[in-house]
């Protein structure tokens, strides 16, 4: 099980990523876009992901359902990051379009419980905030998918001089 962080505007500098790794964080993830105006507040650049990679794991690159799934897939492959479709109202809400997007991109899926019903993805990241550290990669009261999982269990807060979310992730997301 790997402790992980993700952030938007707070792209980790090398010293922040190194401090996080020294404190037991093995993954730091961000956002990717292939074009402008798709609902992502602050897309990262390739070298931002390279800095995050200093934590040890392969970063997750969250992306928008308003973006081109094929272009996002190509960019994620080029940058060696795990592509993950972020399904939430502030970006693009849950709907009929999700499975087609996942199929075209070969991406993982991020969201709350209803997002996962009947969906096939490369991996799954559950967003739910219980108020304490669950020490688990998936909520015990929800059906667990058979693919790699993660649980973003703490929303925006400050760590390592950055505004981040925190989660637990299966070893799949760790170092090769």
TrEMBL record:
Domain of life: Bacteria
Protein name: Uncharacterized protein
């Amino acid at each position: 099980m790997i402790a992980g962080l993700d952030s938007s505007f707070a792209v980790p500098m090398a010293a922040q990523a190194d401090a996080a790794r020294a404190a037991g964080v093995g993954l730091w993830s961000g956002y990717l876009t292939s074009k402008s105006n798709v609902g992502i507040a602050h897309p990262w650049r390739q070298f931002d992901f390279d800095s995050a990679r200093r934590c040890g794991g392969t970063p997750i690159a969250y992306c928008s359902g308003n973006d081109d799934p094929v272009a996002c897939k190509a960019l994620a492959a080029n940058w060696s990051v795990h592509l993950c479709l972020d399904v939430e109202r502030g970006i693009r809400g849950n709907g009929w379009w999700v499975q087609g997007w996942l199929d075209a991109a070969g991406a993982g899926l991020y969201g709350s419980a209803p997002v996962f019903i009947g969906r096939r993805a490369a991996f799954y990241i559950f967003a739910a905030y219980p108020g304490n550290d669950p020490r688990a990669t998936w909520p015990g009261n929800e059906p667990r998918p058979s693919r790699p999982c993660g649980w973003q269990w703490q929303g925006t807060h400050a760590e390592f001089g950055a505004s981040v979310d925190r989660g637990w992730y299966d070893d799949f997301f760790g170092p090769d």
